[in-house]
């Protein structure tokens, strides 16, 4: 069980959990070996909420993105050029959406709206499902492909 969750179960203190999350984030920041990693990391809450992140592969950011992904700190959701089975062959590796590994850490980084947190939550749940590849489009937060078709999933914005 993650440290913050275990502490909450034992002590029921949101403030103490937030302090644990802040420490975890600070530890991550100390592990970042170059400024581009920090720049990508710090851009994630903004680009999730705006849904506007364009991949910066080939501009020196590809190594930073892959470093964060290889460390298990982020998820990469590639866009597809066409919503047609099989999605894999329509994948655009240069355009993608990044998500953090944990919704609690995302909430600790920035005060975000419900829609942004919902997108993060959906991504985490999909990534926890074995053998599911997820994609996105400009109009749909997530796409998954099953034997019986393509399933679009969007976090609804509240009014």
UniProtKB/TrEMBL annotation:
Q: Which InterPro entries match?
A: DUF4143
Sequence ranges assigned to domain DUF4143 in this UniProt record: 36-153
Query: What is this protein called in UniProt?
Result: DUF4143 domain-containing protein
Organism the protein comes from: Catenibacterium faecis
Organismal lineage: Bacteria, Bacillati, Bacillota, Erysipelotrichia, Erysipelotrichales
